[in-house]
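Q: What would this chain look like folded?
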Amino acid sequence: MKVSKVEVFPLFVPLSQSIEAPVSIPHADKVQHIVFGGYRATIVRVTTDEGLVGYGECMTRFAPAALKKIIEEIAPVVIGTDPLQPEHTWEIMYATMMNRGHNRGFFIEAISGIDVALWDLRARIYNQPLYMFLGGRQRDKIPSYASSLRMREKSIVLDTAQQFLDAGFRSIKIKLGKNPEGYIQDIRLVEEIRKKVGDDVVLTVDANCAYHEDYKLALRVGRELERLGIYWFEEPISPDNMYGYKYLTDHLDMAIAWGESSFTRFDFANMFSERAVDIVQPNPCRVGGLTEIAKIAHMSQAFHVPYAPHTGSCSALCLAVSLHIATALPNLLTFEVMRSDWSKQDRNPLRHDLLTEPYDAFENGFLHAPRADRPGIGIDINEEILERYSVC
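A: My prediction, written as structure tokens:
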């Protein structure tokens, strides 16, 4: 059996009304209309000469059509390969541009989508759920947290926190940092959230790199957060500032979380070897696919670093893949459950309608592990969504 076809579906769902950046972002006033102008995903479909199909996703926040072009260029080295050997195919894909410096960004995101589709295909060929190729079924229920409380008017934030509690969550993530210099206002709102939910609810904070290179400012914010019993401080500074992360890890008692914006085992190996991070959050559809996730997961175990999968703004396909990872990893910490779309006016069909059946049954703080009787990722794609929102 050989791979005979690689297809790409770059998807874009424009928002009917422009919105402010829902998270911290550099130069937001100039770039938010592009970065948050709509919902995006790039879906990959790989087919064998016997007609079997696997699906993957390239995690993207920008230019999904660019990923299509890259995949079309890589496809000739994938066609004709053995679908039972995705790791070998990954090395071939990576070799095409490795010595030209393309070891991050769009190129690795493109490889990610193909690689996930190949792992899906391999599991389908063996008629096994994907998690069986990632370590087996370690758990039936996946501990989860609600993401995210965004910095809005206090009454809205507190009402939303109550909704999360009423839904059964006992862990909640807070977004902060849209005004880094005005961090005291953020801290005051975190104080109000803590009073609202009580001391028994786990609170975490995500700054989305709001403090950039200013790790001393991030340290001041972190010390205030420690006082409020915040469990982890996620992406306080730029993802490539390894020594800034090490400084924060060394000077704060709270956990520092990192990884959603990073690529390949090599980024993670550097952070692990420097003891610069306490929790890792790679996204399989950005980091290099499941081939890389498996390597990163093994390293995280060796360095005793818990794993908390990033989901963020990805489509339902990536979320379903991430559930398999969470089911299989012994050192899983918790799983991110996004509770709202960017826009209140425009729901995200790539999150809610891309799959023909629900994949994320939630109950009393836990997601259910994927069904054991569904091979591969265990999902079926709504072809109408692929057709309706394809941009080329």
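The longest helix spans residues 105-125.
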